[in-house]
Every structure is written in C-alpha cells, then in structure tokens.
Design brief:
The chain is mostly helical. It is built from eight helices and four strands; from the N terminus they run αααβββααβααα. The strands form two sheets. Strands 1-4 form a two-stranded antiparallel ribbon. The longest helix is centred in the first third of the chain and has 42 residues, at 2-43. It starts with a helix and ends with a helix.
Length: 273
C-alpha cells in the first residue's frame, strides 16, 4: 500500500516537473519569436518595396507571430490541444481562402499573385498561419476587454471585430506589396468593403472554433496576459509603422481606431485585476 502511494506521488511529481519543463521551453520560444517578429516589423519599411528582402521579412513576421501565439497557447492549454486548434484553424481558413479566390465569396473578387511561396491550392502557406497567429490573441483580448459581460457569444462577436480590425492594416500593406490584387478597387485604399464583411463572417467561424478547442478561463481577469499583450503590441506597431514609416496617416488612423480601443480596454482591465 505504501509502495503504491509512494509510486503514485513520484509519478505525480514527474508529471508536474515535465509540464514545468514544457512551460519553460514554451516561454523561451514565445519570447524569442516575439523578438524576431518585432525586429522584422521594424526592418520591413526600411527596405525597398517589392524587393526580395521584404518578401522574406513578410514570411518571417507571420511565422514569428504564429510561433509566438502557439508557444503562449502551449503554456496555457498544452501541446495537444494547441496543435489541434492550430491545424483546424489553418485547414478551415485555407478552405475559405480557396473558395474566396475561386468564387469571390465571402470577401469579394481577388487573387493571390505568385510573390509569396510556397502555396497550397493557390493560397500562400503563411496566410492560414496568420489567421491563427492573431485569431487567438484577438479572442483573449476580447475576453479581457468584456470583463463581466464576457460570454461565448460576446467573445465570438468582439473577437471577430478585433481580428477584422487587424486587416485594416494588413490588406493595404499586402496589396501595396503586390501579394494579392482585387478585381475591382474599393473605397478604402483600393480595398472593397466586402472584404471586411468577409473577414468578420470568417472571424466568427474562427472564434467559434477557438472557443470549442481552447476554451478561455471562466474569469475574464485570467485571460492570457501574453496573448493580450501580443494583440496590443501588434496594434501599436502597425499604427506607428503606418504613421511614421509607411507615411500613410489614413491607414494609421483607421487601423489604430480599429485595434487600439479594445486593446487598451483589455490591458487596463488586466492591470487592474
């Protein structure tokens, strides 16, 4: 009996030690990937537009952001659940993007160029990574910002709004780089408003998937601080980048008004709690 009890306690300690090791490695990976992402974002506007170096940095920034999000998620939900959620999100958004380029639904008529490689079904491989990379931070930011009003329905809705707000920066920059093109130019830096409706609808699906695969803490005060911080610094970096380096005050103001209010609310609530 004692032998069994000692064995059980030893096994429990080993599991805790193993999990602590995973958390430590994930923390280092998140920190390193975050530094690479920020460095890539800073370097991008300093290089010639349309050049090979900027294409490489676009991939570096997306992969770095994806790695940061994934590592932070592993610390909270573990390897298995995080991996399943990332794969499901990537598969679902690849399908949506492929349908979008083929039919114009739900975003409007657009096409990817061959600038970003490799591609899967004519969709650059980094695109589905980007949906997860900022999708989960957007969900956690919405959770923290909502506070006591946070429910699955409100998180899904506000999370989709927060994710769509990111594209107020993303689409003008990527179209400017020549990574994709719209058949008909729209009123916002050449981007049609149908694109943002499509983002919101797709975002609802992404948020619902994340809600099921990686359920948040019941207490909004315990929303993952690292993921909230990731969304916040992305909003600040994009706003400053467009205002100072890309010299596009319209995108800086519109995108900033989209991302920063919810980010600021979430950060203030996290600091207060």
């Amino acid at each position: 009996m004692n032998s069994y009890g000692n064995s059980s306690r030893t096994s429990s300690r080993e599991r805790r030690a193993g999990w602590a090791g995973w958390e430590r490695w994930a923390g280092w990976a998140a920190g390193g990937a975050s530094a690479v992402t920020v460095a890539g974002m800073i370097a991008t506007p300093l290089l010639p537009q349309g050049g090979r170096a900027r294409k490489v940095l676009s991939t570096v920034v997306v992969v770095g952001s994806f790695t940061t999000t994934t590592a932070n998620a592993v610390r909270r939900w573990g390897v298995g659940r995080t991996g399943s959620a990332a794969l499901a999100t990537a598969a679902a958004t690849t399908a949506v993007e492929r349908i979008g380029t083929a039919t114009g639904v739900p975003f409007g008529r657009y096409a990817y160029t061959r600038a970003l490689q490799p591609q899967i079904a004519h969709v650059p491989a980094i695109v589905p990574l980007a949906w997860f990379a900022l999708g989960l931070p957007a969900r956690e930011t919405a959770h923290a910002a909502l506070g006591e009003r946070s429910t699955p329905a409100t998180r899904i809705a506000l999370g989709s709004v927060a994710l769509t707000a990111w594209d107020l920066f993303l689409d003008p920059q990527m179209v400017g780089e020549g990574y994709w093109a719209w058949v008909r130019r729209g009123m916002y830096r050449g981007i049609p408003l149908s694109n943002y409706l499509g983002w919101f609808v797709t975002g609802l699906g992404v948020m619902a998937l994340l809600e099921a695969a990686l359920p948040p803490s019941e207490d909004p005060g315990r929303a993952d601080g690292a993921l909230v911080g990731e969304y916040a610094y992305m909003g600040v970096m994009e706003t400053v980048g467009f205002a100072r380096y890309f010299r596009d005050p319209v995108v800086a103001v519109v995108g900033g008004l989209g991302m920063l209010p919810v980010a600021a609310t979430a950060v203030v609530r996290k600091l207060r709690d």
